[in-house]
């Protein structure tokens, strides 16, 4: 599966950092009840898909220090990045953070 991933690069890491930054802002808005639960659920499905990806598993150790000031979001990310697909299916999905589908599509294109 790693063979299909793009090679490591500063540009890719920066792209994922931007994605996670947006996701952390969406997570914050949801956590503070500034957005409707139905909107959050749409965003969260895509965020979780991205967090479970092999690409994010590879890049998260480089990105994690950037979120030291927001431990709640960092823990949310780690919940998905560090667990296997089977472990995630066995647990109820927590509510957390969103991303825009255009950003996800860009990242997905880069991973193919």
Give a description of the structure.
- The chain is an all-alpha fold and 112 residues long.
- The chain has one domain (9-111).
- It contains six helices and no strands.
- Helix 1 (10-31) packs antiparallel against helix 2 and helix 1 (10-31) runs antiparallel to helix 6 (101-111).
- The longest helix has 22 residues, at 10-31.
- The chain starts with 9 loop residues before the first helix and ends with a helix.
Task: Report a brief summary of the structure.
With 112 residues, the protein is mostly helical. It has six helices and no strands. Helices cover 67% and strands 0% of the residues.
Domain module count = 1
Straight-line N-to-C gap: 11 Å
Structural class: mainly alpha
The average pLDDT is 81
Number of strands: 0
Q: The biggest beta sheet, please?
A: none
Task: List the helices and strands in order.
Answer: HHHHHH
Poorly predicted segments: 85-107
Count the helices. How many?
6
* Helix percentage range: 55-70%
Shape: globular
The multimeric state of the shown protein is single chain
- Strand portion: under 5%
> For the CA atoms, what is the radius of gyration?
13 Å
Features:
mainly alpha, 0% strand, 112 residues, 6 helices
